[in-house]
Amino acid sequence: MDLKQLKKINEIKVLVFGDYMIDSYINGDVRRISPEAPVPVVEIKTRTKKLGGAGNVINNIISFGAKVKAIGCIGDDENGHFIKEEFNKMNIDDAFFGMDKNVCTIVKTRITAKKQQFLRLDEEQKKSLPKEYYDYISENLNNVFEGVNSLVISDYAKGAVNEDFCQLLIEKAKSLNIAVIIDPKGTVYKKYKGATVLTPNLKELNDYLQYEVQSDSALTEAGFKLREDCEIEYLALTCSEKGISLFSKGPREDFPALAKDVIDVTGAGDTVVASIATLMPLGFSMPDLCKLANQTASVVVSKFGAATCTLDELMATIEDTGEFKLISLDTAKYIVEDLKNKGKTVVFTNGCFDLIHAGHLYSFKYAKSLGDVLIVAVNSDASVKKNKGDLRPIINQDDRIKMICELECVDYVILMEDSNPVNIIKNIKPNISVKGEDWKNKNVPEQKILESYGGKIEFIPLYQGKSTTNIIEKILKVYGSNE
């Protein structure tokens, strides 16, 4: 995965259509039960309102740093004007967004105390959007899609997302080769036909099937059936604490959720949809998008209410979990820059690490003790042969990298094609580069580069008697004598 693409996230514009609403919160304290009925009395302390439904998808997209163009229709009423004012504050492109006196703006009011929800009050009318608005979007479809990189359809089953509107937008997006990501509801999924990604949760899958999936094999069968029925490219099934199951042309792939304290799962599905829609145009593969969606969801479920995940929070989660240890040089530059901006000390070391032994483990742990984050550059097979001869390496580069990635003390791994680390250090600029003390008083090629930006070399003691060469010689001695 090349995380440097995240730097281009502010160039992405997502078109969002769906059921727009307001999430209203009345928060207070509960100290007694009402004498009139056996219910708690909430003494109101604060009242807050924020965008909900498709609006919460927008909140997440904006938090990532991308841009939004919104289409949909709300009431020409007090709550509708609140939504428009929020759009204005966030610089949402709402040139084709409608308001109509015959539409009632949806409001969900939650009464809470100490981060616990006691009651929810819904004000809504479930009906299709005015035909005049559909005709308006149809007539202006080219302008609606101008400058758009992906389309989200956020269906909350309130009436806005009907088959006519869905197919109008999906067909136009497909003609422009724009990805369509849909958060579905209900039992009528034919309206989503031809979408790129569908992101139902397990309950929504059961609603579509009109029966409850009872086993893992039944889940696999149902997932592929839904994908085939809707003629979609990907089905990303969100399974709560189990993570995401991806159904595509190949076999089912599972991406476990990250372990984290769960405070409130409200809006986690919106975050998954928003992350896929925002990051897919940057070139991330669908498996990588599922991993990143799990990262973002882990952030929002640790907060109360319909929360969002910022790009900085996503990066911090990636850095904390080590989910993506093997990185490219370009990605390493981005990560090291972010870490140093946060005041972290980045330590670097490099080597062949052929036949990993106790000496290697000692050097990794020693290097990590000098800072906060350890990056290890592993010589490619070609560069090992150049440095040590045609008979080396004994272990190929893929297996050497896999073993090093499994080490807890190693945070990131880079494949090094050059015979020395000068180019890598020049690009990522670590705070410290670690060498064995056998390099003391020798010409260290990367030393001038380090000194030029304020970095330094640390020479660490060697783990006596442990080397790959000694191991090879012992193997030859033991097994060679039996020939």
Please explain how this structure is put together.
It is a single chain. It is built from 17 helices and 19 strands. It is an alpha/beta fold and 483 residues long. The strands form 4 sheets. The protein has an 8-stranded mixed beta sheet, sandwiched between helices. A 5-stranded parallel beta sheet has the order 17-16-15-18-19. The two termini are 46 Å apart. The relative contact order is 0.09. The model has no long low-confidence stretch (mean pLDDT 89).
Helix content: 25-40%
Strand order of the largest sheet: 4-1-9-10-11-12-13-14
Distance between the termini: 46 Å
Number of H- or I-type helical stretches = 17
Total number of beta strands: 19
What low-confidence regions span 5 or more consecutive residues with pLDDT below 50? none
Instruction: State the shape.
Output: elongated
The SS-based structural class is: alpha/beta
Mean pLDDT: 89
Radius of gyration: 27 Å
Provide the β-strand percentage band. 15-25%
The major sheet is characterized as: 8 strands, mixed
Describe the structure concisely for a colleague.
With 483 residues, this protein is of the alpha/beta class.
